[in-house]
Design a protein that fits this description.
By secondary structure, this protein is mainly α. It folds into 2 domains: about 1-85, no CATH class; about 95-185, no CATH class. The protein is built from 9 helices and no strands. It has helices at about 1-15, 25-30, 35-45, 50-55, 60-85, 95-105, 110-125, 145-155, 170-185. The longest helix has 27 residues, at about 60-85. The chain starts with a helix and ends in a 10-residue tail after the last helix.
Length: about 200
C-alpha cells in the first residue's frame, strides 16, 4: 500500500514538474538525457529498459544525475576557493636573511621536500592572502620542523603562532621537540592542555 502511494506521488510530481534550464556544461551533458527526462526514466523506466543496468546504476539517466552532482560539488569547491583567495590576510614580511637564520636553528639541513614545503608556506605568509594549507607526510618526515619554521617566522615578526595536536601525548612530544629548538634561539613557548 505504501509503495503504491509513493509511486503515485512520484508520478504526479514528475507530471507536474517543469523542465529546468540546462546548467551542465555541454561537454558533460553530451549523450545524456536532460534532468527531467533522466528522473522520469529512473522512476518510470520503459518496458525495454535493461534491468541489470538499472540495478547497477549504469544507465544514461544515472550518469546524468551523477554528472550533475559531481559538477555541482566541484563548482561549489571552486567558488569557495575563489572566495578564500579573494579575502585579504595579514602579510608576514620576512627577508630571506631571517628565513636562513631560522633554518640555522635546526641541528641539521632540511630535506628537499621540507625546503619546498617551507618555500610554499613562506609564499603564502608573505602574499597578504589568507593561507589554507595542509602539510602532509609520513610519520617522521619532518612536518613538525616545517611547522616550527613557519611559526618562528611569524613570531620573529611580532606575531603569535599555535600548533594544535589531537592528543595530549602528541602535544607533549611536539612541545619537547620545539622546546629543544627554541632553547638555542632564546625563544618562548607555552604548552596548553585541555582540562
Amino acid at each position: 500500500m505504501l509503495g503504491r502511494t509513493r509511486q503515485r506521488l512520484v508520478q504526479d510530481a514528475l507530471a507536474r514538474a517543469a523542465a529546468p534550464d540546462e546548467w551542465l556544461p555541454a561537454e558533460l551533458a553530451r549523450g545524456l538525457p536532460p534532468t527531467l527526462a533522466a528522473l522520469r526514466l529512473l522512476h518510470q523506466p520503459p518496458d525495454d529498459s535493461d534491468p541489470a543496468a538499472l540495478e547497477a546504476h549504469a544507465t544514461a539517466a544515472h550518469h546524468r544525475l551523477a554528472s550533475e552532482e559531481l559538477f555541482a560539488f566541484a563548482l561549489g569547491v571552486t567558488l569557495r576557493r575563489a572566495g578564500r583567495l579573494a579575502r585579504r590576510g595579514q602579510a608576514v614580511p620576512t627577508p630571506p636573511e631571517l628565513r636562513e637564520q631560522l633554518k640555522d636553528y635546526l641541528p641539521f639541513r632540511l630535506t628537499a621536500a621540507q625546503r619546498k614545503a617551507f618555500r610554499e608556506i613562506v609564499a603564502d605568509l608573505t602574499s597578504g592572502r589568507v593561507m589554507h594549507r595542509l602539510l602532509q607526510g609520513d610519520v617522521g618526515s619532518g612536518k613538525t620542523l616545517v611547522a616550527f619554521l613557519a611559526m618562528a617566522m611569524v613570531a620573529e615578526t611580532g606575531g603569535q603562532a599555535a600548533l594544535l595536536a589531537p592528543t595530549e601525548v602528541l602535544a607533549r612530544q611536539h612541545a619537547t621537540t620545539i622546546g629543544r629548538l627554541l632553547k638555542a634561539a632564546g625563544g618562548r613557548m607555552q604548552l596548553l592542555l585541555a582540562p
